[in-house]
């Protein structure tokens, strides 16, 4: 069972990171980003959710790599997002290392069913 749990955990954390980056870029509400992450807990539940996002145009638009006149573009998060999008190799490396670190910590904690015993 270990390889399946490890695979599910790594895919879950990777999807959570991806949902966060896409949600920030598309300016989703926080509740939609949290919902995307919560749906990733259940295997394959993200597939209908992703179709729902596509039907509603929530995945449309370019990556925001340049600052615009929009006053929302001057936040720390937007500046960090733009920096990361302009430096994709470094960003992918940092995100891959972050996902690895989170999955490693979660493996050390054991199955979620044992966290509160």
Automatic annotation (TrEMBL):
<keyword id="KW-0812">Transmembrane</keyword>
<feature type="transmembrane region" description="Helical">
    <location>
        <begin position="89"/>
        <end position="109"/>
    </location>
</feature>
<keyword id="KW-0472">Membrane</keyword>
<dbReference type="InterPro" id="IPR023845">
    <property type="entry name" value="DUF3817_TM"/>
</dbReference>
<dbReference type="Pfam" id="PF12823">
    <property type="entry name" value="DUF3817"/>
</dbReference>
<protein>
    <submittedName>
        <fullName>Hypothetical membrane protein</fullName>
    </submittedName>
</protein>
<dbReference type="GO" id="GO:0005886">
    <property type="term" value="C:plasma membrane"/>
</dbReference>
<keyword id="KW-1133">Transmembrane helix</keyword>
<feature type="domain" description="DUF3817">
    <location>
        <begin position="3"/>
        <end position="54"/>
    </location>
</feature>
<feature type="transmembrane region" description="Helical">
    <location>
        <begin position="28"/>
        <end position="49"/>
    </location>
</feature>
<keyword id="KW-1003">Cell membrane</keyword>
């Amino acid at each position: 069972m270990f390889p399946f749990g490890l695979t599910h955990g790594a895919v879950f954390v990777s999807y959570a990171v991806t949902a966060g980056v896409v949600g920030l870029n598309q300016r989703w509400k926080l509740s939609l980003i949290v919902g995307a992450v919560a749906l990733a807990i259940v295997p394959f539940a993200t597939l209908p959710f992703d179709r729902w996002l596509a039907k509603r145009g929530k995945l449309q638009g370019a990556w925001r790599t340049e600052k615009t006149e929009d006053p929302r573009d001057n936040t720390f998060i937007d500046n960090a997002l733009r920096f990361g999008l302009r430096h994709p190799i470094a960003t992918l490396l940092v995100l891959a290392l972050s996902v690895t670190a989170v999955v490693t910590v979660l493996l050390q904690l054991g199955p979620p069913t044992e966290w509160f015993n």
